[in-house]
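Problem statement: downstream parser choked on a complex file, so we are re-checking the raw output for the zinc ion run. The parser issue turned out to be on our end (a line-ending mismatch), but while we're here, posting the original submission so the record is complete.
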Amino acid sequence: MNEFRQDRTTGLWAIIAPGRGRRPRDLKAARAEDSPLPAFDPACPFCPGNEHMLPRIIDEAARDASPGWSARVVPNKFPILQLGSSAEKDPLGTGYGEHEVIIMSPRHDADIADLLAADVQALVETWFGRFEAVQGMPGIEDVVLFCNRGSTAGASLAHAHSQMIGMPMRSPRVASTLAWSAAYHRDHGRCVVCDELGREISAGDRLVELTDAFAVLVPFAARSPFEQWIVPRRHCPFFLLSDDRERAALGGALQRALRRLNAAAGMVPYNFVLEPGSRDADHAPFAHWAIRVVPELTTPGGFELQSDVIVNPYSPEDNAETLRQAVVGPSG
Ligand SMILES: [Zn+2]
Ligand SMILES: [Zn+2]
């Protein structure tokens, strides 16, 4: 039976339509190009030794082993937005902003799911540090941190990287989520994400993993097959307010979620994105940051385009069961 579901934390709608004829073989057709990559590509600007192809290096997570870094931050060579001294007068009209690339490993063939625990920890701290720096740049309202894997999910280079874009406006999506959670807080006096987490943890059927710091779950109204949210269990309104314990646990939680996805669905294209919460003190009672891992396995058509109701041909409960059972080894 198909079912309309509204996400209680965002207000967005999905139609859960399992058995619409899409079977795992259709997922297979949507798989990312999974021909093996070389460990080094002489033509890749993100590979060590090819620094001359980079505009400059903004930051690095140093490590003892060669090549001396585990993550590297560089300007995007083809930025969507650019800082400029005069641009601040008309930030929207001049495409003002910051666009950085965070190279996630020196190895051309690395997948974030397989990085060493220490390296993924350094990567999380690099994200945190750059988020703080970009958020602090003049005129930056919102910072968008995301990773695209696979060309159909928007990745233009195979070497694993994530990106950060500082915008002079609040993302409409963040604004609508905050408006939704503000309304819930007015009506109920509580954070909608905390309430939803409590429900999901006691129901358990969409829960993938529960640790001290994070719950990983398939959302009730998942908009993609195998979508997973990584949510801090403590009410925390903004990514930059996460504590050491949470950041120490985040890399492992994200890696296990991605390994489960790899095991359940193969090397599928995906995006993972940071839902940042809000730095505005007025939003502190109801904003709640998280990471969303969204596989790109279905192609929205005219119905989705016009209605903004997404058809998900998989049951979130079945997907959670498959992900829970997926075997995930220790890091690295
Ligand atoms: Zn490379
Ligand atoms: Zn909360």
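For whoever reads this later: The helical segments are 24-29, 117-135, 172-188, 192-203, 244-265, 302-307, 316-325.
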